[in-house]
Amino acid sequence: MAYTRTPRTERENELLAITERLLPAGARNPTMNPEHALIVREAHGSKIIDESGNEYIDYLLGSGPMLVGHAHPAVVGAVREQLEKGNAYLMVSEPTVRLAERLVDAIACAERVSFCNTGTEAVYYALRLARAARGRDKILKFEGGYHGQADWVLMSNQWTWQPQALPKPVANSKGIPKSVEGEVLVAPFNDIEATAAIVEAHADELAAVIVEPLHRTVPPHDGFLTKLRALTEKHGIALVFDEVVTGFRLAYGSAQEYYGVTPDLCAMGKSISAGHPIGVVAGRAEIMEHAEAVRQITGGYVSITGTYSGNPVSCVAALAAIDLFAADGVYEALFSKGRRLMTGIQSMLDDAGVAAHVCGEPPAFEVWFCDAPPRNFRDMLASDFGERAKFTSALLERGVMKAHEKFFVSLAHSDEDIEFTLEACREAIREIAESSG
Ligand SMILES: Cc1ncc(COP(=O)(O)O)c(C=O)c1O
Questions:
Q1: Active site residue: 56, 125, 146, 259, which one?
Q2: Which of 38, 68, 127, 381 lies at 20 to 30 Å from 389 by C-alpha?
Q3: Are residues 128 and 224 in the same domain?
Q4: pLDDT at position 255, please?
Q5: pLDDT tens across 68-85, in order?
Q6: Looking at the predicted structure, is the pLDDT value of residue 1 above 80?
Q7: Among 363, 126, 328, which Cα is nearest to 248's?
Q8: What is the pTM of this model?
Q9: 266 and 413 fall within a common domain
Q10: Is 238 part of a structural domain of the chain?
Q11: Are residues 219 and 290 in the same domain?
């Protein structure tokens, strides 16, 4: 394969040195290998280019938002036009109203909609609404699920190296008040019996159960989401789907359409606005109506506002992206590309005798180095993270950028991109097989 990475230019080295000095969070290296730290220059369609001029086929997609591809002309045009008309009014403008209409039309649970700026905020507000609606404080999440940075959910996520006996949470950051841990219960994904036992023991304290319908890259098995819906309904506990990753990605109607389960509330972000900051809380009217301003007088008010919430730039970007998602054949094409990668990579792994499983759904999947496909977080934790890191690094060296935890496929990936990627995977897998054999 004829791909060679150019060594870092002086300019990129200088930018990285400043990053290291001034930005405690660092350069957000996709592979975690220090040699691969890079500064992005620009991105177009399916490609991302670093400061030294290296081009990569991008499966990181900005951690998901760039489902339509980078700098899509329809999105850029809509944003440019809106910028000429102003970009922050606080008050509602037509793009916000039209986006609300589109979402109510597309998303099964969405009777009412509220906007914010990130997935973190959307989850945070959804949980606040659920607490107010039920008059209870506790929430239940699934071990290994990621729901952003709010204190209540930055617990037992995918970066939990020493899990506790469930349902006890593990805070994933210092600085979270100890008292918040007492408000969070943790259950194992895909295990409805264990989940039901926890829910039933705490039914009277729980406001909400929050779940990523596609749990990182582990799909629900044996009707898990349907059973979870029945369980929460039985106890009058709000079921919240975190659709920040799955929104408009698994289907036009998102994971709730794809898996055929309608939650009470959902949180969205990332993919719906082609990289422009947005978060959406959507759900049943009787819960969402707690956010009505009149309730400040009549009682039961839930505050979920913000200066940039529903800003017209993010809304026109989302409207342009949703127009692209609504076109004929879009999901068939997206799934066909993702499926080619998933099946191609799996058969290369099998042929090379590497114990690994491609797991997820065609638009978002990962290669897990373990003996059987993971069904929950403990399975993921038992997998070989070293081999996975080697694979991710070997791909970057060959011009394919993925996150250290998944591949995101976009509408912009071409057949040639898929061919190139499969060839890079073939070489990366050969390298791994040789190094471990
Ligand atoms: C499922 C899920 N929920 C919430 C979030 C948080 O979104 P944001 O980073 O926009 O705050 C993420 C981000 O990766 C996510 O993957």
A1: 146
A2: 68
A3: yes
A4: 98
A5: 999 999 999 999 999 999
A6: no
A7: 363
A8: 0.97
A9: no
A10: yes
A11: yes
Does residue 318 sit within a domain?
yes
User: What is the helix (H) or strand (E) element at residue 351, kind and residue range?
Assistant: helix 330-352
Mean pLDDT in residue range 403-420: 96
Q: Which residue has the tokens 């998303």?
A: 107
Read off the pLDDT of each residue in 191-200 and give the average, rounded to a whole number. Answer: 98
In degrees and rounded to multiples of 5, residue 390 shows phi and psi of: -60, -45
* Contact residues of ligand 1, CB 6 A cut-off: 63, 118-120, 123, 146-148, 212, 242, 244-245, 269
In a domain, 279, yes or no: yes
Q: Report CA(102)–ligand 1 centroid distance (Å).
A: 22
Residue-level pLDDT at 2? 79
CATH number of the domain residue 375 falls in: 3.90.1150.10
Q: Hey, is 380 helix, strand or coil?
A: helix
- Do 285 and 346 sit in the same domain of this protein? no
Place of tokens 């039961």: 300
Does pLDDT of 226 surpass 70?
A: yes
> What range does the domain containing 195 cover?
73-326
Name the helix (H) or strand (E) containing 55: strand 55-58
pLDDT tens per residue across span 231-266: 999 999 999 999 999 999 999 999 999 999 999 999
Strands 184-187, 55-58: pairing is: unpaired
The answer to whether 242 is a known catalytic residue is yes
* Ligand 1 atom, smallest distance to 119 CA: 7
Q: Are residues 276 and 298 in the same domain?
A: yes
> 151: exposed, middle or buried (C-beta count within 10 Å: 0-12, 13-18, 19+)?
middle
pLDDT at 41 (0 to 100): 98
State how far the alpha carbon of 56 is from the alpha carbons of 38, 46, 136, 416, in Å: 12, 8, 48, 13
The percent of residues in the chain predicted with pLDDT above 90, rounded, is: 95
Residue bearing the CA closest to ligand 1, atom 14: 148
Q: 326, 346, 378: which is the final residue of a domain? A: 326
Q: Are residues 49 and 108 in the same domain?
A: no
Q: Could you confirm whether 146 is annotated as catalytic?
A: yes
Question: CA-CA distance, 219 to 209, in Å (whole number)?
Answer: 17
Residue 361, φ and ψ in degrees, nearest 5: -125, 155
Average pLDDT, the chain: 97
Instruction: Among 274, 309, 326, identify where a domain stops.
Output: 326
43 within domain boundaries = yes
